[in-house]
């Protein structure tokens, strides 16, 4: 926390705006719009809820195919399953670890040949690193596939100076406890198109039609963010840039000390800016003499937590029969990649002791 959050929460308590609506939600949405330079935003209970509503807004229904990065967190694609739609997973490329544009095009062509034009693409910017937006957006336009940007991990990252989450028809951010900023749990859906935001807001509040009695002509959800969570979010947005500066420093420190010792990192291209949500490294056992798991356990022994990269979706038991367009890049990433401790409150001493342990 930055410090001001508790003041905004107290304000909400003092004025008795607890839930479900209140002035802090309106302000938080406005602050997100200003930060990301996007026209509209609706604050929700989670990033997953935001993706669910985004898919509904794009008209995804039972049996429709939805393209998604395989290398991601399950929250990206569970909403496809809520709608009984069909996920089509796409492999990553080495440069950014995100969706491979060439495989994407191949997959779209193949689906169209089979008579199934994908209804949407969920494009993930993993670990805060921007995907190859220029190429991906032009392919998506060419084949008429609308894009949902899953920028859950990438708030504050940009591509050619434009904030991630604002390239697609709809973008989403998450404020879960592990993200770059948090509302304790929450998400937001952003778009430059008002119709999506109005529609998502309506569905997120149980699809209540305007009437003094409670009238419903559609199935809705209880997905709105509470005013208290929004109060935390206002305070967190004030410290977002300093969190990003922290995370980027942590990355630089790891890179400087580990790069020649068998650890490799995703580089920023000249036209991107990454919030460096987590510092992630690929391990070359030829140089380190240890594989990813050896190194993870080596840290664990002195109570330093690190984690493997996200396990790709096509390798998950629940998706074992799913269609996957494959160049086996994300399998390799998963095999040799490690997320290093990257919290914004990591002290220099802690960072140095992690590095010492990694070089031992
Ligand atoms: C965290 C995350 C989500 C889901 O957000 P929640 O707020 O936890 O529901 C979706 N996609 C990615 C890539 C994430 O990291």
Overview of this structure, please?
The chain is 39% helix and 16% strand. The chain has 360 residues and is of the alpha/beta class. Helix 1 (5-14) runs antiparallel to helix 8 (227-258) and helix 2 (23-36) packs parallel to helix 8. The model has no long low-confidence stretch (mean pLDDT 96). The protein has two domains: 5-237, Type I PLP-dependent aspartate aminotransferase-like (Major domain) (Aspartate Aminotransferase, domain 2, 3-Layer(aba) Sandwich); 240-359, Aspartate Aminotransferase, domain 1, CATH 3.90.1150.10. Pyridoxal-5'-phosphate binds next to helix 3.
Q: Strand content of the residues, in percent?
A: 15-25%
User: What is the radius of gyration computed over CA atoms, rounded to a whole number of angstroms?
Assistant: 21 Å
Number of helices: 12
Give the total of beta strands.
Answer: 15
Number of domains: 2
Mean pLDDT: 96
CATH architecture label of the largest domain: 3-Layer(aba) Sandwich
Briefly note the structural class of the backbone: alpha/beta
Described by the principal axes of the CA atoms, the overall outline is globular
CATH homologous superfamily of the largest domain, by name? Type I PLP-dependent aspartate aminotransferase-like (Major domain)
Uncertain residue ranges: none
- Which ligands, by name, code or SMILES, are bound? pyridoxal-5'-phosphate
| Overall helicity | 25-40%
Q: Mind telling me the CATH class of the largest domain?
A: Alpha Beta
For this structure, the CATH topology of the largest domain is Aspartate Aminotransferase, domain 2
Note the gap between the termini: 33 Å
Largest sheet: 8 strands, mixed
Order of helices and strands: HHEHEHEHEHEEEEEHHEEEHHEEHEH
**Spatial order of the strands in the main sheet?**
1-9-8-5-4-2-3-14
């Amino acid at each position: 926390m930055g410090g001001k959050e508790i003041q905004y929460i107290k304000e909400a308590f003092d004025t008795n705006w607890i839930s479900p609506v209140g002035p802090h939600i309106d302000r938080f949405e406005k602050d997100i719009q200003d930060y990301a330079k996007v026209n509209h935003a609706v604050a929700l209970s989670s990033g997953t809820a935001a993706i669910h509503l985004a898919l509904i807004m794009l008209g995804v229904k039972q049996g429709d195919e939805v393209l998604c990065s395989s290398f991601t967190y399950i929250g990206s694609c569970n909403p496809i399953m809520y709608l009984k739609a069909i996920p089509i997973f796409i492999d990553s490329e080495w440069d950014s670890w995100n969706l491979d544009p060439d495989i994407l095009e191949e997959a779209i062509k193949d689906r169209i040949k089979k008579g199934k034009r994908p209804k949407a693409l969920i494009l993930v910017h993993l670990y805060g690193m921007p995907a190859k937006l220029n190429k991906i957006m032009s392919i998506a336009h060419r084949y008429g596939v609308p894009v949902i940007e899953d920028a859950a991990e990438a708030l504050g990252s940009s591509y050619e100076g434009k904030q991630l989450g604002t390239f697609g028809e709809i973008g989403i951010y998450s404020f879960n406890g592990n993200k770059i900023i948090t509302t304790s749990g929450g998400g937001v859906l952003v778009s430059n198109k008002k119709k999506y935001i109005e529609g998502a807001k309506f569905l997120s509040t149980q699809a209540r039609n305007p009437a003094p009695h409670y009238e419903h002509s559609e199935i809705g959800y209880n997905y709105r963010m509470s005013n208290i969570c929004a109060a935390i979010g206002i305070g967190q947005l004030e410290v977002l840039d300093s969190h990003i500066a922290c995370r980027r420093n942590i990355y630089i420190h790891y890179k400087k000390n580990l790069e020649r010792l068998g650890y490799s990192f995703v580089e920023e291209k000249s036209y991107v800016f990454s919030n460096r949500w987590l510092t992630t490294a690929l391990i070359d056992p030829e140089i380190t003499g240890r594989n990813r798991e050896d190194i993870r356990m080596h840290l664990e022994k002195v109570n330093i937590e690190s984690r493997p990269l996200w396990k790709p979706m096509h390798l998950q038991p629940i998706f074992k029969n799913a269609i996957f367009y494959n160049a086996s890049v994300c399998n390799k990433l998963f095999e040799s990649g490690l997320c290093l401790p990257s919290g914004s409150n990591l002290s220099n001493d802690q960072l140095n002791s992690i590095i010492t342990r990694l070089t031992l």
